[in-house]
Amino acid sequence: MNAFIGFSEGRQSFKYEGFVLAGTLFIAKTIESISQRQWYFGTRRIGLQMRSSLVAAIYQKQLKLSNEAKHVHTAGEIMNYMAVDGYRIGELHFWFHQTWTTVLQLIFALGILFHAIRWATLSALAVIIITVLFNSPLAKLQHKFQTELM
Q: Are 86 and 58 in contact, with CB atoms under 8 Å apart?
């Protein structure tokens, strides 16, 4: 980041520094994108395996239900277990890791920003906090509507 700031201010170390910086950034972001997509693919695959295992277990249990138990648990309830609950269990793995990696990325980004521009980082942190505070009521409202819809 300091190299980009220095280059944009006109301080060049060598003739083609801008091209080297742009090429390095392109390569770094390409590697990041590929590795992130592989991580997404892996977590989604594991989630799909968890979901299909749960659906198979529920289906096997449903086949063993007695007639009396079939009156207590309707076909719609069993399908709801298989569809909604199976989906939520399958997504748990992805969202659990997404939560802690997002926090880690935010800490790294703020650390790099602090190293580059020192105390002006506090303004960026303030914008992040304000954005989160404004999004919280909207997220709660969306969750309420989603719950009502279900």
A: yes
